[in-house]
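Let us practice reading a record.
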Amino acid sequence: MPGGMRGMGRGRGRAPVGLLAAGLLLMEVLRGGSAGAAGPAVGDAAPDFTLTLFSASAFRLSDLKGKTVLLNFFASW
């Protein structure tokens, strides 16, 4: 077998595991997650949170009050 063809079949077992994990996550999201927690209603203010940045400074959502905020959830796979 040529050197470039050796590892081609190794990733096949990962696809079913990834699909299973994605399916379980989707079921949990559609089910509503925790039954005791009610999420914010449309039009409600977002809850305040604080993040620590790589520069060790803090970022607070409340610092952007009155400004438009866009959240982009990005995955690079």
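A brief commentary: The chain has a mean pLDDT of 80.
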